[in-house]
Amino acid sequence: MTSVMAMLEAGIWTWSAEQGLRRDPSCLQLLGLSGDELDDLGWLARVHPDDGARLEEAIRACQRGESGGLRLEYRILHHQGHYVRLEERVRRDVDGTLLGVVRHLDASAAQQDDRHDTDPLTGLESRSHFELLLDERLASESGSFCLLQFTVDHRSKILQLFGEVACDAMLAKLARIVRHELRREDPFARWDEDGFILMLSQTDRLSGLEIAERLRLEIADASLLPERPVTVSIGLVQSQNAEQIDHLLARLASCHGQARREHNSVVG
To answer: Which SS3 state, helix, strand or coil, does residue 102 take?
Structure first.
């Protein structure tokens, strides 16, 4: 699961005439690099010779205002010496700023997507796969656990102000922040367009509330969008003995719904 997530996470970059190109470290991680800077090869220098001119011209057209955006697939040299396939989507805002999102298109990632085990944007579990895992967990009778469901507040307003590409990039970064705070064995899924769900094994309600509050604060403090904080509303429940999945999810939906009405809160 961890390797699949690494392949599917999005890299993000921005460009403006005033500040130039700013590439998030997540872009470099796609190429097997660490830190904040490329090595002696620049990004375009790594692109396959048959793809480089097409990519460069498309980006320049966006910079000149001749195109409002692009979606391209190309090959780029990985740090270990082999080429990987990337998808790059770029959007040009009204002020001329470019926002780019790049993702892996490796064959192994495509196979995972074909099985519907993962969400292609975030690399998290898909909703259907999470429900299967939850059903198996309830049937195993291996102790209680907590479920957390959370939704980005005011996503429709964010979408209106920043556009689809920026919204997608925000969700991908949010998923990485949360995944980093969880244990590897804790299932974590994209639940719907603006929501997520996760399972905390061997965790009681009070401990779950502490974790939920920590996640809420960390997300609110993160720079997920320029000059606009992103907050989430979190619902939490602890599983009950011999509880059926429909009953558990209904209780969770009730807590989550109350949290959404309050905004930027935890209810459980």
So the answer is: strand
